[in-house]
């Protein structure tokens, strides 16, 4: 199979490429990524020499480039997005361009090429947020996005769904909860806590820190994506979650404990505007229909993630200094 992965230099996309080539070593992958601040080719050092892997630096909004690439593949796995909620609050425009117009561009190219299989990576955030006693989100939960990021993802999901309804494009969509694992950009909560502690800094927790996220290991997420690609019903959406609701302050406490620091490292700072209180996912559909469930224990996965960040200090230090952005020029001229 020939696959176009978009956003494959980011956190989940780069883990997906490692995962997929590990499981399907005869497949070919083209990785289309613009290398925004979030794209880091150093995530792919171990596989960049492979003959069945190709990197293309480019924008999913570039119509000619996308048309050319889509003609070469059997499957598109679409991760590329502006993904950070805080950035969307302060500069929403890029979220509209990449997440909505970029997704539309890919859909058009897939349609024009006679219906290339298309898997769209969405998020649980399109469903809004939950109160403490609400049932978890499932595939039937009405959309109620609450940030420019989640609104742009909701719009992109609807375009993907409409390309199935109107044009019979063979699509599937997955909605996953908060991921953690190696290669996560260190402005997101878990790697931010770890790197701040390693730098002797405080941990900034928004508001009271009692907001809840359902954490899942990135490899469980990508195994779910693989399951949907291989066995999912065309036109359907699937929710993926970790069965692991934890408050932000408890995440901070777990990391403080593992890394041997005291709670005085926690600093409560101004809250995120419109901060979503709780996310939780009911993944019983994919569990019953496709036999998927998350497998990686959170305590174990978190310890491994901390160990990885300690052993790969250069990786995150090069992000902080900006040096990671020179790697493209060094490798690709
Ligand atoms: P990320 O920000 O780490 O990576 C995004 C990648 O997309 C980067 O490599 C970036 O360079 C690339 N990109 C951005 N704009 C582009 C453009 N216009 N053209 C081509 N490439 C572009 O994001 P992530 O955390 O890996 O998330 C990947 C996908 O998964 C996103 O669609 C996100 O909405 C979704 N998602 C993320 C999580 C999570 O917890 N991180 C959970 C559920 C869903
Ligand atoms: O639920 C899936 C979503 O998870 C994805 O769609 C997004 O792409 C991904 O970024 C993530 O969104 P969150 O906003 O939940 O992730 P973030 O790591 O930014 O924040 C996690 C929680 O921690 C959230 O409640 C905000 C809080 N937080 C975050 C930061 C960066 C803090 O308290 N302090 C911080 O400095």
From TrEMBL:
Keyword Lyase attributed: yes
SUPFAM superfamilies assigned to the protein according to its UniProt record, in alphabetical order: NAD(P)-binding Rossmann-fold domains
EC number of this enzyme: 4.2.1.46
Enzyme superclass (EC): lyase
GO aspect biological process, one term: nucleotide-sugar metabolic process
Source superkingdom: Bacteria
Catalytic reaction annotation: dTDP-alpha-D-glucose = dTDP-4-dehydro-6-deoxy-alpha-D-glucose + H2O
Coiled-coil stretches noted in the UniProt entry, renumbered to this chain: none
Alphabetically ordered keywords of this record: Lyase, NAD
CDD domains named in the record: dTDP_GD_SDR_e
GO-annotated molecular function: dTDP-glucose 4,6-dehydratase activity
Stored InterPro entries: dTDP_Gluc_deHydtase (IPR005888), NAD(P)-bd_dom (IPR016040), NAD(P)-bd_dom_sf (IPR036291)
Domain named NAD(P)-binding: residues: 4-304
Cofactor requirement: NAD(+)
Family according to the record: Belongs to the NAD(P)-dependent epimerase/dehydratase family. dTDP-glucose dehydratase subfamily.
NCBIfam families named in the record: dTDP_gluc_dehyt
Protein name: dTDP-glucose 4,6-dehydratase
């Amino acid at each position: 199979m020939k696959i176009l992965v978009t956003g494959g230099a980011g956190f989940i996309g780069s883990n997906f490429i490692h995962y997929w080539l590990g499981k399907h070593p005869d497949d070919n992958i083209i990785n289309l990524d613009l290398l925004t601040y979030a794209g880091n080719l150093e995530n792919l050092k171990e596989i960049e020499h492979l003959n069945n892997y190709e990197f293309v630096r480019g924008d999913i909004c570039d119509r000619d480039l996308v048309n050319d690439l889509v003609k070469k593949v059997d499957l598109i796995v679409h991760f590329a997005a502006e993904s950070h909620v805080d950035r969307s609050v302060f500069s929403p425009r890029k979220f509209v361009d990449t997440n909505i117009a970029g997704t539309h561009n890919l859909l058009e190219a897939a349609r024009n090429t006679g219906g290339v299989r298309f898997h769209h990576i969405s998020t649980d955030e399109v469903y809004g947020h939950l109160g403490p006693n609400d049932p978890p989100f499932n595939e039937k939960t009405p959309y109620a996005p609450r940030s420019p990021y989640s609104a742009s993802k909701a719009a992109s999901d609807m375009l993907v769904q409409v390309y199935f309804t109107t044009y019979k494009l063979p699509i599937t969509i997955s909605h996953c909860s908060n991921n953690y694992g190696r290669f996560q950009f260190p402005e997101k909560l878990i790697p931010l806590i770890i790197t701040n502690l390693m730098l002797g800094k405080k941990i900034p927790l928004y508001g009271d820190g009692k907001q809840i996220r359902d954490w899942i290991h990135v490899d469980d997420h990508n195994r779910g994506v693989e399951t949907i690609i291989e066995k999912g019903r065309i036109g359907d959406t699937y929710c993926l979650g970790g069965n692991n609701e934890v408050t932000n302050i408890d995440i901070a406490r777990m990391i403080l404990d593992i890394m041997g620091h005291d709670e005085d490292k926690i600093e409560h700072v101004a809250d995120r505007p419109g901060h979503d209180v709780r996310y939780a996912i009911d993944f019983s559909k994919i569990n019953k229909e496709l036999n998927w469930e998350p497998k990686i224990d959170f305590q174990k996965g978190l310890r491994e993630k901390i160990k990885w960040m300690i052993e790969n200090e250069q990786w995150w230090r090069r992000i902080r200094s900006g040096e990671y952005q020179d790697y493209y020029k060094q490798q690709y001229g």
